[in-house]
Amino acid sequence: MKKILNFLQPKVLKSDEATPDLNRELKRIIEGLLFATHVALSLNKIQQIIETQYPVTKAQLNKLMHALKEEYQTEKRGFRIDEIAEGFLLRTIEEVHPFVEQLHRERRTEKLSKAATEVLAIIAYKQPITRREIEEIRGVDCTSSVANLIERGLIEIIGQKEAVGRPNQYGITKKFLHHFGLKTLQDFV
Amino acid sequence: MDIPSHFLLSSFQIRMSAFKGSCANLLLLVQSKEIDILEVVLLEIAHQLKEYLEKNQNLDVAAEACQCIAHLLFLKSGQLLPKPLSEEPHLDGEEIRLQTLKFLAEYTRFKEIAGQLTAREEGQRRFFTRFPQQEQQKEIGHGLDEVTFDDLKLLFSKIIARSAQKPKVTLVDEEWDVATLVTWFEKRLYIQKKILFEEIFSVEKTRGELIALLLALLEMIKQTKVRVVREEEIIYIIQLHEKDS
Fold first, then answer.
1. What residues does A165 pair with on adjacent strands?
2. Which of A77, A163, B90, B197 could form a disulfide with A72 if both were Cys (CB 3.0 to 4.6 A apart)?
3. Residues B117, A121: C-beta atoms closer than 8 Å
4. Of the candidates A142, A137, A172, which has an alpha carbon nearest to the alpha carbon of residue B108?
């Protein structure tokens, strides 16, 4: 990595002066960052990291990220770059799923119950929303579903309603986007 | 407004003088005003569901039926309860029906969205990312240090064999509860951080107690509360600090 970074001289890192060599090195850094994490990396985060040593623009990173994404597709790699939770994430391709699944059988997470999924759908569409308001829509108590969703990190308390008792208001989390493979909530709503 | 088709095909069928079919069908007819909710005896439906569940323990069907009955109950109570004396504009029968229909439409919409979320969740299970903090997980996951499960099995079989040779004096009806033994183990380890394996699994103990103790030990290893280590051919059970686990 040191060798790569030594190669990048600050003076040549302006997007209009970017050379093929420079782009290739930057792509290697992006690739390394994506490889080393299991959470989606935003362009801001990548820029922040690279900028600790060299100036780089977000537009430049965006262009390189998409070039890298296309490269993986053209070269028919076993993984690809997905846009999830307002960031980029390296994931295996669908075709290799039957094989990777055998490697990581114990990794399968428990599926959400029907009731919990319904509560989640209501929160995703109506956030911020109180538990009482969810119950008004579903017609049944949803205390345990809400507790379960909080425990799984799919929803969180995002405020309190200006009403009697100041009840908590719930909203979805970034993990929700991760869980359902969404770039933003607007992709689904 | 659509009610999901699988709801209509539920295996739990209501039998009443004026109606025969699934709970969701009844709900559909009530909302389309073909059946007056006030004429539906919900207690009878509850009895029939209870009977059904005694024969078929299908939780999905039970959950769907309960949901539909809850809705019917909600609708019926809405019609039966006296109107609150509030400043809100008085709603006549037609308006209540419209409001109910609006409510049902909204609920059905969220049911459909939930269905889409479930499908998406299933689809996402086909993609894998890297493991989070792999090294740390590996370290925590091990409860046996330099002692294989086979070692443990061998040691345990020896103790059981020796225990069997012990002359039996009286027969006592005994019941061993793993959860209680886990608590006992915890207390013991709190006082004595490191215990000899053979001290816990002593030949003085009965076969039933030894088996329950082994199960308790395995449970604690699983919960990463203890570690089994070998030091100069002697096997010890040691407590893991909370920060380690």
1. none
2. A77
3. yes
4. A137
Residue among B121, B129, B131 whose CB faces A89 most closely: B129
Q: Tokens for B181, please give them.
A: 């033994």
Whether chain B has a CB inside 8 Å of the CB on A100: the answer is: yes
Alpha helices by DSSP H, listed for chain B, are: 5-8, 23-31, 42-55, 59-80, 93-124, 134-141, 149-165, 178-191, 197-200, 207-222
In chain A, DSSP assigns E strands to 79-84, 87-92, 129-130, 155-160, 168-172
Rounded to 5 degrees, what are φ and ψ at A110? -65, 135
Q: What is the mean pLDDT of residues B125-146?
A: 63
CA-based nearest residue to A101, from B125, B134, B132, B120: B125
User: ipTM above 0.90?
Assistant: no
A150: number of Cβ within 10 Å: 15
With beta carbons less than 8 A apart as the criterion, state whether A62 and A86 touch: no
**Mean pLDDT along residues B215-229:** 81
* Single-letter amino acid code for the residue at A1: M
**Residue type (1 letter), A26:** L
For residue B104, what are its two tokens? 């049902």
Closest C-alpha to A80, from A65, A95, A90: A90
Residue B186 has pLDDT above 60, yes or no: yes
In chain B, positions 104-163, which contact chain A (CB-CB < 8 Å)?
Answer: 106-107, 110-111, 113-114, 116-118, 120-132
Burial degree of B217 (CB within 10 A; 0-12, 13-18, 19+):
buried
Chain A interface disruption, residue of B10, B126, B133, most A CBs within 10 A: B126
- Structure-token pair, residue B217: 């030990």
Q: Cα Rg for chain A, rounded, in angstroms?
A: 21
